[in-house]
Design goal:
Keywords: Flavoprotein, FMN, NADP, Oxidoreductase, RNA-binding, tRNA processing, tRNA-binding. This is tRNA-dihydrouridine(20/20a) synthase. It is a single chain. The protein is an alpha/beta fold. The chain is built from 17 helices and nine strands. β4, α4 and β5 form a beta-alpha-beta unit. The longest helix is centred in the last third of the chain and has 19 residues. It starts with 13 loop residues before the first strand and ends in a 9-residue tail after the last helix.
Length: about 325
């Protein structure tokens, strides 16, 4: 288990969204090297997986990941409470309930975005979690479902759920269409309505409101922070990870200035540690860093080397230096 940090946690001005198959503990370790203050979120983990699966496999994370939040998928208050207790026992800094995922698989489990139609059930689940943990219990949701596009819908959802004790709401500023769109299309087709998140902050000034969806530029983040408390970024942080350095500088520490070579050096050490302690193959880690050299000469060769199955088979961590030499001369890493 990770040991919770003694120092105060940073504000949630910047966070990296939970992304299925992407934001595992290796990805989060990499992102932490780029931004010391961003909040990091796990992939969504279902209450069923924690009740009946390998808890250590699902919840193990690295101490340096703090602040880190566990995102849960579920709807049954008792199971949510048990899972939240596990999150606190494993020293997560926050537990977050997913009320925004629109996939049919999630809907079949009666959780995700379809929970927005049952705010009282969400309220009860939040209260059940709040009653058994001292860490923050937060909610990530959409602004509506299907063709329900009135602001009143999300206002009433937030107001009801807040009765259960939630004080932080992460608002993906699009509707979720439960039928007719794929998860990918649900991230792109429904229009963005940031003004709904801004209005939530005006209507509920006592709540922490964080906006998510379609935000990628530093100027856009700064502009959003004039209206709400924080910004959560997903695919841009994953596909162009060096942006995390720029965001860290803009929002937390103007003097923050790591080099990409520093990051490679730290990753080599991490890969060695992971292999020695857990037998983690190199490919499980380097798949998350393919965008590290984006925008630099040699970036394509960097990606090619670190995604080549033949080169990765039985490869040593020093392969990262081999890849980096494609971007920069080996005598000046």
């Amino acid at each position: 288990m990770s040991v919770a940090p003694a120092k105060p946690l940073p504000p949630r001005r910047l966070s990296v969204a939970p992304m299925l198959d992407w934001t595992d503990r290796h990805c989060r370790h990499f992102h932490r090297l780029l931004s010391p203050h961003a909040w990091l979120y796990t992939e969504m983990i279902t209450t069923g997986a924690l009740m009946h699966g390998d808890v250590a496999r699902h919840l193990r994370f690295n101490e340096e990941e703090h602040p880190v939040a566990l995102q849960l998928g579920g709807s049954e208050p008792e199971a949510l409470a048990r899972s939240a207790r596990l999150a606190e026992e494993w020293n997560y800094d926050e537990v977050n309930l997913n009320c925004g995922c629109p996939s049919e698989r999630v809907q079949n489990g009666a959780f995700g975005a379809c929970l927005m139609a049952e705010p009282e059930l969400v309220r009860d689940g939040i209260k059940a979690m709040q009653d058994v943990v001292s860490i923050p219990v937060t909610v990530k949701h959409r602004i509506g479902i299907d063709r329900i596009e009135d602001y009143d819908f999300v206002r009433d959802f937030v107001g009801t759920v807040a009765e259960g004790g939630a004080r932080t709401f992460i608002v993906h500023a699009r509707n979720a269409w439960l039928k007719g769109l794929s998860p990918k299309e649900n991230r792109e087709v429904p229009p963005l309505r940031y003004e709904f998140a801004w209005q939530l902050k005006r209507d509920f000034p006592q709540l922490e409101i964080i906006v998510n969806g379609g935000i990628s530029k530093t100027e856009a983040i700064v502009a959003q922070l004039e209206h709400i408390d924080g910004v959560m970024i997903g695919r841009e942080a994953y596909q162009n990870p060096w942006m995390l350095v720029e965001w860290e500088q803009a929002l937390f520490d103007a003097e923050w200035a790591p080099s990409r070579a520093d990051v490679i050096k730290a990753l080599v050490a991490y890969c060695k540690r992971e292999y020695n302690e857990h037998g983690t193959p190199l490919r499980a880690i380097v798949r998350h860093i393919l965008g590290l050299a984006n925008g630099l000469p040699g970036a394509r060769n960097f990606r090619r080397i670190l995604s080549d199955p033949k080169l990765l088979k039985d490869a040593k961590p020093e392969l990262l230096w081999t890849a980096w030499e494609q971007v920069q001369p080996s005598n000046s890493p």
